[in-house]
Amino acid sequence: MGHREDLLEGAKRCLLEKGFVRTTARDIVKESGTNLGSIGYHYGSKDALLAEAYIALIEPMGTEFEGSRPAVDAAEGDLERFRQVWEHIIGSVPEMRPIWMMTLEVITQGERLAGIRELLIAAQKEGTAGMAALFTGIEESVLPDDLVETEGRFYTTLLNGLMVQWLFDPASATTAEQLTEGLRRVMDRAAENG
Questions:
Q1: Closest-CA residue to 159 (of 77, 80, 98, 103)
Q2: Among candidates 61, 167, 44, 165, which has minimal Cα distance to 116?
Q3: Mean pLDDT in the chain?
């Protein structure tokens, strides 16, 4: 590996161990076996390197979630797809816990992580589109923008809230079945009052 790749791998390890706020440029250099000047040369800044490392860490989450796309018969309906996808996502929480903790750090420490925050905001639309594709079964490349901006945002909002619950207290966090039953009841009530 070259210095660029060494820095990225070192930054990923530092993020998993220390998070954004506590990781220093010296930590990354020590972990990667490089030098301070190489951060600026290859990435421009420590923040840009950390943002790229974070994105590299969360990319497998998208792949993991996409690999969970259930094969649901049309007769089973979208609620069964909804339940199956959430069941798989929730099942991945223990393995992905350090990454979700970093995500919460970005959310809660956004003012201190302004450079990182801006880079991640720019990448957020891609994640929203991925969530819409996962739940609808429509290929991401052909998703209409309005679907991403409505359903994609809906699923992303649910995901973020659910992850907070699972990080705070897994024993009392909402299950896939509870989430699905809640949605079914909301839909039934809307149809009754429609």
A1: 103
A2: 44
A3: 86
How remote is the C-alpha of 67 from its chain's centroid?
A: 15
The pLDDT tens digits for 140-186 are 899 999 999 999 999 999 999 999 999 999 999 999 999 999 999 99
| Rg, C-alpha atoms of the chain | 19
User: Distance (Å, rounded) from C-alpha 72 to C-alpha 19?
Assistant: 38
Distances (CA, A) of 121 to 16, 73, 95: 20, 36, 24
Model confidence at 76: pLDDT above 50: no
Distance CA 61, CA 82 (A): 18
Dihedral sign, CA of 155, 158, 160, 162? negative
